[in-house]
Amino acid sequence: MDDTKILLSENELPEAWYNIIPRLPNPPAPPLNPQTKEPVKPEDLEPIFPKSLIEQEMSPEPWVEIPGAVREIYKLWRPTPLQRARNLEKALGTPARIYFKNESVSPPGSHKPNTAVAQAYYNKEAGIKRLATETGAGQWGSALSFACKLFGLECTVYMVKVSFEQKPFRKSLMHIWGAEVFPSPTNRTQAGRKILEENPDSTGSLGIAISEAVEDAATHEDTNYALGSVLNHVLLHQTVIGLETQKQLALAGEKPDILIGCVGGGSNFAGFTFPFIGDIIEGKLEAEVIAVEPTSCPTLTKGIYTYDFGDTAGLTPLLLMHTLGHSFEPPAIHAGGLRYHGDAPLVCQLVKDGYIKPRAYPQNPCFEAAVLFAQTEGIIPAPETSHAIKAAVDEALKCKETGEEKVIVFGFSGHGHFDLAAYDAYLEGKLEDYEYPEEKIKEALEALAHFPKFPTGL
Ligand SMILES: *Cc1c(COP(=O)(O)O)cnc(C)c1O
Q1: 414 within 8 A of 103, measured Cβ to Cβ
Q2: Cα 204 to Cα 134: distance, rounded to the nearest angstrom
Q3: How far apart are CA 348 and CA 340, in angstroms?
Q4: More confident residue, 423 or 167
Q5: Which atom from ligand 1 is nearest to the alpha carbon of 414?
Q6: Nearest CA to 182 among 135, 149, 117, 113?
Q7: Per-residue model confidence as pLDDT tens digits over 43-55
Q8: Phi and psi dihedrals of 88, rounded to 5?
Q9: How many other CB atoms are found less than 10 A from the CB of residue 193?
Q10: Cβ neighbours of residue 424 closer than 8 Å, sequence gap 6 or more
Q11: What is the largest CA-CA distance in the chain?
Q12: What digits encode the pLDDT tens for the residues 438-448?
């Protein structure tokens, strides 16, 4: 097939999500209760999540049916196109064939509504009236606001104060979709009031905003909490991306040699690659799978594999993952969605077992690749997405040297229409490249050392 866009019809939308858990070579390690160091019991999570999502966290089922109401909403923008980047190939002079799965066509502009819609649905089914969440730059907050509105749920977003003040446009999206948005720290929660007492001028952090959203959910009967990445059920919902891509590559008569995605908490990467990794585990596919992160927050490439808290404040269960330590504060790079101290436990396990190869890039070369992409393919990538593009460009240039006609497929996680200030800074030569200093990483990891060694069950 010579088409530039490989499209599926709406009735080819996947009917079930793909669960990697029963296909893993080793069973996943459970999250632990920080007090008892015992695996977290499902009931422990019921104050903030509906039973259906808690079940999906550890489901042994290879496939999980997508509810009809969720598929109907997916049809507002899914199936998303798989596109051949012919102009980019020409500009690079590569014999490789480059494809990208375009998740930027969703209403909020990224992959995040794939799980936001599912989470809103299950909470509505459970009789919940309102969802509380945190957001940094606003990608997740806007996706959840959109999803809640479609299911008639209220939505409360705790937005990191510095972003609330400096990045007004995604806040506008949240308001249009009917959410209430508060600059965090707020005086609506104990967690927020405590921070404000100590430091009235606090500009907030994702860790503080998570604490506020979780407290809001835990203290209101009709309110639950929603998380946009990291957890198994979030990764599960994102697998529509990879399942569609498999069908589209088959239509194009292609087999992927290299699959690439950017990793913040790991959800778009997992959603795109897990169905392929399942095939690799089962010996049905041979391909290289590359996870790309920033050198300023090198979780998979430089972190250690250990149990750590999911949040900065140390309130969540302990997760077995690659981590830079929950006290790690990455510099303020423009790919805000990639600044997380840990990564999804399922992604980390597959890195440890050798199925995923991690790689890190500084932000200037990523923006350079993003601008080349915008100038050839037209679409302006999110700064997060630019990391995947940079890796795809590098792999395509390797093919140019060797003459190999590899098929390179990457996940295009979102557009950058609300990140134009970052592009301005890049074009004006004002962006700093940041290699996180080894000593800083060592310090953060030493802070972890006072934790007892947890049994991993592995
Ligand atoms: C949030 C976000 C990411 C990073 O989150 P993951 O959970 O790692 O996918 C990447 N790209 C875009 C466009 C995002 O909005």
Answers
A1: yes
A2: 11
A3: 13
A4: 423
A5: 13
A6: 135
A7: 999 999 999 999 9
A8: -65, -45
A9: 14
A10: none
A11: 63
A12: 787 777 777 77
What residues contact 35, with CB distance under 8 A and at least 6 apart?
none
Distance CA 318, CA 306 (A): 9
Structure tokens at 252: 């194009």
Question: How far apart are the CA of 260 and the centre of ligand 1, in A?
Answer: 14
Atom nearest to 385 CA in ligand 1:
11
**pLDDT greater than 70 at residue 456:** no
Token reading at 80 = 């998303």
What is the rounded CA–CA span in Å between residue 256 and residue 217?
Answer: 43
Residue nearest to atom 1 of ligand 1 (CA): 337
Structure tokens at 41: 């019991």
Q: In what order do the strands lie in the sheet with 180-184?
A: 180-184, 154-160, 130-135, 223-225
Which residues, including other chains, have CB under 8 Å from residue 240's CB and lie 6 or more apart?
13, 14, 17, 66, 74, 78, 114, 271
Candidates 375, 395, 45; CA nearest to 218 is: 45
For domain 5-10+67-109+233-446, the CATH architecture is 3-Layer(aba) Sandwich (3.40)
Beta strands in 178-317 (DSSP E): 180-184, 223-225, 258-262, 288-294, 304-309
From the CA of 35, how far away is ligand 1's center (Å)?
31
Rounded-to-integer distance, Cα 357 and Cα 56, Å = 27
Amino acid letter for position 300:
L
Cis check: omega of the bond before 79, within 30 degrees of 0: yes
pLDDT per residue over 164-180, tens digit each? 988 889 999 999 999 99
Ligand 1 atom closest to Cα of residue 228 = 7
Residue type present at position 308:
D
Q: How far apart are CA 222 and CA 203, in angstroms?
A: 29
Distance between CA atoms of 397 and 93, rounded to whole angstroms? 8
Nearest protein CA to atom 13 of ligand 1, as residue: 414
**């504060």: which residue's tokens?**
329
Helices 267-281/345-352 angle, 10° precision: 40
Cis peptide before 22 (omega within 30 of 0): no
Residue listed under structure tokens 């375009």: 102
Q: What's residue 120's pLDDT?
A: 98
Helix (H) or strand (E) holding 368: helix 363-377
Tell me the C-alpha to C-alpha distance, in Å, between residue 358 and each of 261, 291, 302: 10, 5, 10
Residue type, 333: I
Residues lining ligand 1, CB < 6 A? 110, 112, 139, 229, 262-269, 337-338, 382, 384-385, 413-414
pLDDT of residue 311: 78
Ligand 1 atom, smallest distance to 139 CA: 15
